[in-house]
Amino acid sequence: MVDNRITDGRRIAELLSSEIDGREDGELAHFAVTNADRDVEPTADGARAYDVTRHDERIARAFVHEDRAHLEFEAGQDGAAEAASDVDLRVRPKATQPPKTLVFVESGAEVKRATDVLQEVSRRLEEPDA
């Protein structure tokens, strides 16, 4: 049996970028991929591949590793953590100032779940006390 699971970090980030830029449904209509580094090479700690903006404001950055990608949320961190947990994506806080939330996308199959996280963060940012 052939294993078709995509676990190349750069390819996962490309798939995620295509979903963000290509879909105009729901909250994804508000998102764009910006400042892309087309020559990014994966690193153990993750190399920045592109920014994810919502209404021209950066809310996350995408990073590539050899075997996965991750989103580093700068806005909506609590919502990102809850939404990622709800769709079974690995998540962890990043103790920086200001704090950030990392959401890991470890296969091509997880890309749709990562866009679900982005959409939930967007909905929460629209709430009056977000």
From TrEMBL:
Residues 1-127 form the DUF7993 domain. It comes from the Archaea. InterPro entries: DUF7993. This is DUF7993 domain-containing protein. The lineage of its organism: Archaea, Methanobacteriati, Methanobacteriota, Stenosarchaea group, Halobacteria.
